[in-house]
Write a structure and sequence with these properties.
- It is a single chain.
- The longest helix has 17 residues, at about 145-160.
- The strands form three sheets. An eight-stranded mixed sheet has the order 1-6-7-8-9-10-12-11, with helices on both faces. A two-stranded antiparallel sheet has the order 2-5.
- A hairpin with a 5-residue loop joins β11 and β12.
- The two termini are about 30 Å apart.
- It is built from six helices and twelve strands.
- Helix content is about 20%, strand content about 20%.
């Protein structure tokens, strides 16, 4: 199974029609927390060479916490390091001197401009969603409407300022290249409004405290482990906020419609357990963060 960064397509029929306008911030909107991961490059540092052959996977070792006084981040004071390599391309393993730093930062008012920078390159992602779909309780209009797309951007920023939007930005060489959205259950209500979720809700036990709903990775950096780094950082952010039951809906096949939820391999590496199937190509997984 290929895991890591994902190509996201907004075609979900479980949670709404493709034209639905997809609407969240930091409980601690002050100082953002940064985590740094030295990453390996492949084939002469050309990012387009980081697409694996079928079945290839990137590598991610457990983070090692560093002394912030000895190694701070430009965006925060908490940092850690791990080794992430690009998937196999048939070439020899890159030398240690070729490692490339990857940094993760929580979404905050100070990092909002970088979120915009990443999403504007793709016209707001998913035809102008701006990662608002799961923040809204229901449809709000066609995404083809430019005013609706701009409203999504403004609404996401407003939620951020009110403390109801959460996410992780991944940077390489100072450029935002990846995104993971997480949030409290009440801040991402669209999931449980879906027909399939409602039909199984009574069998799931206690409701989750948190949800992880979306991943997005800059096209040249896909399939190089970026999404897995973002997921790990999101779980650490949830831990800092007291933890609880975390729920997600990863795909079990690369041909799944809802691939923006991540892949099952990503979540299994982080200790998630499958609760039950969630459609034909996704599963509902949970883990308690303490």
């Amino acid at each position: 199974m290929v895991s890591g960064a994902l190509v996201l397509e907004w075609r979900d029929t479980t949670f709404g029609a493709p034209n639905d306008a997809p609407s969240g911030v930091d409980d601690e909107p002050g100082r953002p927390v940064a985590v740094r991961f030295p990453a390996l490059r492949c084939e002469g540092h050309r990012p387009e060479a980081c697409s694996p052959r079928p079945g290839a996977e990137g590598e991610l070792e457990a983070p090692v916490v560093r002394d912030p006084a000895a190694r701070g981040s430009r965006r925060g004071t908490e940092s850690s390091s791990a080794t992430m390599s690009c998937p196999s391309t048939g070439l020899s393993r890159p030398r240690r001197s070729e490692r490339q730093p990857v940094e993760t930062v929580e979404l905050s008012p100070s990092s909002w401009a970088d979120f915009e920078r990443l999403f504007r390159r793709y016209h707001g992602v998913q035809a102008g969603c701006w990662c608002m779909f799961y923040h809204r309780e229901g449809p709000t209009g066609p995404l083809q409407n430019k005013s609706r797309q701009e409203a999504n951007r403004r609404d996401h920023h407003a939620l951020l300022l009110r403390g109801h939007a959460h996410g992780i930005l991944v940077y390489r060489d100072g450029k935002p290249i990846g995104w993971c959205q997480f949030g409290r259950r009440e801040d991402l209500p669209r999931v449980e409004r879906g027909r399939k979720y409602r039909s199984m809700a009574s069998t799931l036990g206690p409701p989750p405290s948190w949800r992880i709903t979306c991943f997005f990775v800059d096209r040249p950096c896909r399939r190089s482990g970026v999404a897995r780094v973002a997921l790990h950082a999101a779980l650490e952010a949830i831990r800092r906020r007291g933890g609880g039951i975390v729920e997600a809906y990863p795909a079990t096949s690369g041909r799944a419609v809802a691939t923006w939820f991540g892949t099952i391999g990503m979540f299994e590496r982080e200790g998630f357990a499958v609760v039950r199937p969630f459609g034909q190509s996704n599963v509902l997984v949970r883990r308690e963060i303490r």
